[in-house]
């Protein structure tokens, strides 16, 4: 697998664009479009919040029932959530406008929104943007970056990843972009993710691997414990690499799985590391658990602990907060067996052995915790399973950003 520069335009046959449609009432880009020259098989996973946005309802139906998709249109600034029938009608109107602009079926159009909940989409601006976006479509890295910037809300950087692999002698590319910085919690978050690939793959195989990978990537990140209304991961495969079709039983299934896993994992980490107001990515590894689910529950409990996140911000090796978070997680645990380490580019330090503090150096611990990223490792010594979760530190700026989000 080769890591390359790029995002949604890296794969053959995909174009993208981003522009300012005036939705945010400022100069920032707020609409994006992704388009494939050829129809795509699609896969998707969506928010588990029972309060879900109109675009989530629309996309679920397209992924489940449409034979293919060919375009995605995204806006930032307004979430189109809690908007009733008017919100549903807005999705249909967007699909119709894209259909007319690109000459694709309405059933081949996916839509997504992110931003303030409860506000109706300004459809005059949305439709004007949809008419303009096709004129700006392009397949360069720059075009992909414009799209990645247009879907940002409180993100501080655009988020893109791309890789290439060999499948049956053909070069296959997988690239993606995402957004997300707040209202981020396991079971997905206020995050949108769009992945494109020129692989030739069966829809059921793509859906199966997407669901499994999201479980170990996007569902293992947390910034603030809030699960959003708009979470969406969409994967589009147009088959233009002309490889032998990948099925669940083919020898190339795992090769493509690993590439998609890498892209989704790295995008997940980019979201966690860009958490609102954060200063560092906080990674939690749980080792030697008795079961995978036990490891995941423990890792997520640590990474979501506000007290632990605050200690990371303060570069304080307050290991008791980690052990406490493990204890209230609900997972089986034998505290007297647990070892805890902190690790970063400054080194690795065991701070707890068999549930008790080691004679560690506070100065060295502070040095390790002053770097970015910071890794906490909890060895529970109960088996051979492991899991990793990602989050960030909790800072003063998180409150400042969210206290006046709508203004």
UniProtKB/TrEMBL annotation:
Its EC number is 2.3.1.35, 2.3.1.1. It is found in: Cytoplasm. Coiled coil: none annotated. The keyword Cytoplasm applies. One of its GO terms (molecular function) is L-glutamate N-acetyltransferase activity, acting on acetyl-L-ornithine as donor. Substrate binds at residues 153, 179, 190, 276, 402, 407. It is an enzyme of class 2 (transferase). The keyword Ligase does not apply. The record marks 114-115 as: Involved in the stabilization of negative charge on the oxyanion by the formation of the oxyanion hole. It catalyses: L-glutamate + acetyl-CoA = N-acetyl-L-glutamate + CoA + H(+); N(2)-acetyl-L-ornithine + L-glutamate = N-acetyl-L-glutamate + L-ornithine. Belongs to the ArgJ family. Catalyzes two activities which are involved in the cyclic version of arginine biosynthesis: the synthesis of N-acetylglutamate from glutamate and acetyl-CoA as the acetyl donor, and of ornithine by transacetylation between N(2)-acetylornithine and glutamate. This is Arginine biosynthesis bifunctional protein ArgJ. The lineage of its organism: Bacteria, Bacillati, Bacillota, Clostridia, Lachnospirales.
């Amino acid at each position: 697998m080769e890591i390359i520069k790029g995002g949604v335009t890296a794969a053959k046959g995909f174009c993208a664009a981003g522009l300012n449609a005036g939705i945010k009432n400022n100069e920032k880009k707020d609409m994006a479009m992704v388009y494939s020259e050829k129809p795509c098989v699609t896969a998707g996973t969506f928010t588990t919040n029972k309060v879900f946005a109109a675009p989530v309802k629309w996309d679920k139906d397209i992924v489940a029932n449409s034979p293919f998709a060919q375009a995605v249109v995204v806006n930032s600034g307004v979430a189109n959530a809690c908007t009733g029938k008017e919100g549903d009608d807005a999705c249909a109107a967007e699909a119709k406008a894209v259909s007319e602009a690109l000459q694709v079926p309405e059933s081949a159009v996916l839509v997504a929104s992110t931003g303030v909940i409860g506000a109706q989409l300004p459809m005059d601006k949305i439709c004007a943007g949809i008419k303009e976006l096709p004129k700006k479509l392009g397949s360069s890295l720059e075009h992909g970056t414009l799209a990645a910037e247009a879907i940002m809300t409180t993100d501080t950087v655009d988020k893109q990843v791309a890789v290439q692999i060999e499948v049956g002698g053909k070069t296959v590319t997988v690239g993606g972009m995402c957004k997300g910085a707040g209202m981020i919690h396991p079971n997905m978050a206020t995050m949108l993710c769009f992945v494109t690939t020129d692989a030739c793959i069966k829809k059921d195989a793509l859906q199966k691997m997407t669901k499994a990978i999201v479980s170990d990537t996007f569902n293992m990140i947390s910034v603030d414990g809030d699960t959003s209304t708009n979470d969406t991961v969409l994967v589009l495969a147009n088959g233009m690499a002309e490889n032998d079709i990948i099925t669940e039983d083919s020898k190339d299934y795992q090769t493509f799985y690993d590439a998609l896993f890498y892209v989704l994992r790295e995008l997940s980490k980019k979201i966690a590391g860009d958490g609102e107001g954060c200063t560092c990515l906080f990674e939690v590894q749980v080792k030697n658990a008795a079961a995978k689910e036990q490891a995941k529950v423990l890792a997520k409990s640590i990474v979501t602990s506000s007290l632990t996140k605050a200690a990371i911000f303060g570069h304080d090796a307050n290991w008791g907060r980690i052990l406490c978070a493990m204890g209230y997680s609900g997972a089986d645990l034998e505290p007297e067996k647990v070892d805890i380490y902190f690790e970063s580019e400054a080194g690795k330090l065991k701070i707890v052995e068999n549930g008790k503090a080691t004679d560690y150096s506070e100065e060295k611990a502070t040095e390790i915790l002053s770097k970015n990223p910071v890794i906490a490792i909890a060895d529970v010594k109960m088996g051979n399973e492991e899991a990793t979760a990602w989050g960030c530190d909790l800072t003063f700026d998180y409150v400042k950003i969210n206290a006046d989000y709508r203004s």
